[in-house]
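Q: Please design a sequence for this.
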């Protein structure tokens, strides 16, 4: 796409905004947040380039000068007076807060002002103000929560616009790495031209982010963790005589470390407050890899049996068990099922931590499943005693739980880290953690004989979400089978009643 066609799109989006207003469509409260630092030579021209229709529809434009060493603040004040812009607010920080720190104050101000959207615009003119309608259009048309201007969407446009070759190559390499770590497809991670909805900003902990330039990367990871889509629109590239305060090596290292921290947080190996989204409840899904705990448990269940699933998490094992013609199926979980008609013969929404009496008093079962359940209960003895009573004489009980002695956790503990998180073995809802020895002891004490112990590999396919991840899971499984205590991600025990323990007690 050539520059003339690009200009045509800019005019088309500006025309769209004008027609939107003329038709009487509702206009959300939009604020333009201008970050400035030593921009005395560019700020006035940047503000002049804002299309008139944008000045008409926005709620406010606020210029936050981050303690410039030149007269940027005085110039902004003069611009406001000369052009009589009542909806313009100017703030001078008494100390330099940094690029990220300046953004934090601006977004908090936008929230306080009750805006619906805020657009980040750099005062040095590096990002074309003429493209403001491009960012606003997805918000009007699609109610987009995040819109990024990208200089990389149009092949060759960044270089034609004057982006230095070393910055172009660096941008491409870093963006490729970030896409890999986030399993994303953004064309560019390093544009500072962005629109955020205030609703989105309220849901992410941006105030704990860095005050440095990789603040922009952290907020992308937070949006990704929240599960929101980022819309990209092409913008022209402009490089003039503005001074860059980004140190390339430090910036690259901070991005590399941030993405690694995010991945460790996702894996449950590091609790990172930056990526802990308060309103994001954990989602329990079927682990479909053939070597996962769910698939191995299903493989251990014989056909046409009467099954009780304790902690069934809305019935994630149910479809597979029904395929094995386990026609009489009972479930218990603290969560309500998706539907009572999903296939359960009976279902009880019950918190067994608080009420440890199993409701099926007159039933007996061929198979009892405790999949990822025992780690949520401090005192299991009463529950296991109840389950032993409900298990048929020739029945089996299948138990799975995480391996706290996994080599990764041993290494973390060696360096003084014990990182509880939102998922994984160190899920913050887990109140009891097991090694293979303590798991054996638990089942023996409850009166069960262990028939078989199995291991699961680290679920690389959930982390990498590609063919390589699935292959790596298969390769790792070899280690988990050879040395369960060190390499198993989870243990699965197949047990039966051991009546000799009852005789010994008597």
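A: Design:
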């Amino acid at each position: 796409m050539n520059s003339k066609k690009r200009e045509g799109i800019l005019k088309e989006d500006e025309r769209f905004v004008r027609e939107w207003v003329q038709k009487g469509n509702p206009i959300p409260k939009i604020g333009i947040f201008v970050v400035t630092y030593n921009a005395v030579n560019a700020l006035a021209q940047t503000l002049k380039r804002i299309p008139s229709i944008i000045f008409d529809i926005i709620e406010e434009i606020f210029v936050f000068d981050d303690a410039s060493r030149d007269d940027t603040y005085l110039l902004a004040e003069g611009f406001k007076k000369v052009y009589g812009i009542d909806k313009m607010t100017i703030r001078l920080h008494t100390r330099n807060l940094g690029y990220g720190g300046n953004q934090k104050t601006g977004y908090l101000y936008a929230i306080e002002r009750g805006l619906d959207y805020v657009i980040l615009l750099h005062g040095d003119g590096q990002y074309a103000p003429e493209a403001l309608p491009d960012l606003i259009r997805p918000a009007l048309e699609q109610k987009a929560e995040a819109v990024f201007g990208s200089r990389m969407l149009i092949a060759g446009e960044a270089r034609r616009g004057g982006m230095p070759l070393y910055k172009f190559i660096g941008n491409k390499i870093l963006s490729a790495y970030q896409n890999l770590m986030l399993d994303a497809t953004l064309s560019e991670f390093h544009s500072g031209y962005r629109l955020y909805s205030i609703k989105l900003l309220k849901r992410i902990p941006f105030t704990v982010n860095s005050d440095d330039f990789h603040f922009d990367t952290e907020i992308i990871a937070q949006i990704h963790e929240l599960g929101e889509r980022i819309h990209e629109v092409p913008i022209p590239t402009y490089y003039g005589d503005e001074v860059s305060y980004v140190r390339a090596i430090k910036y690259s290292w901070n991005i590399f470390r941030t993405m690694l921290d995010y991945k460790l947080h996702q894996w449950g190996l590091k609790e990172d407050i930056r990526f802990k989204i308060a309103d994001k409840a954990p989602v329990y899904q079927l682990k479909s890899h053939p070597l996962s705990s769910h698939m191995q448990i299903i493989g251990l269940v014989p056909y046409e049996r009467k099954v009780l699933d304790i902690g069934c998490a809305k019935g994630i094992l149910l479809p597979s068990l029904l395929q094995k013609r386990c026609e009489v199926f009972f479930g218990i979980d603290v969560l309500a099922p998706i539907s009572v008609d999903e296939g359960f013969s009976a279902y009880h929404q019950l918190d067994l931590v608080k009420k440890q009496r199993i409701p099926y008093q007159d039933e007996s079962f061929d198979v009892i499943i405790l999949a990822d359940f025992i780690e949520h209960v401090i005192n299991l003895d009463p529950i296991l005693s109840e389950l032993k009573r409900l298990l048929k004489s020739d029945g089996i009980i299948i138990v799975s739980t995480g391996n706290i002695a996994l080599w990764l956790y041993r290494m973390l503990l060696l360096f003084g880290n014990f990182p509880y998180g939102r998922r994984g073995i160190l899920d913050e809802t887990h109140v009891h953690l097991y090694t293979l020895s303590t798991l054996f002891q638990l089942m023996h004490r409850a009166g069960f004989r262990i028939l078989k112990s199995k291991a699961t590999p680290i679920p690389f396919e959930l982390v990498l979400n590609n063919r390589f991840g699935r292959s790596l899971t298969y390769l790792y499984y070899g280690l988990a089978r050879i040395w369960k205590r060190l390499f198993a991600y989870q243990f699965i025990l197949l047990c039966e009643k051991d009546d000799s323990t009852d005789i010994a007690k008597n």
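Q: Thanks. Anything notable?
A: The longest strand covers residues 391-402. The mean pLDDT is 87.
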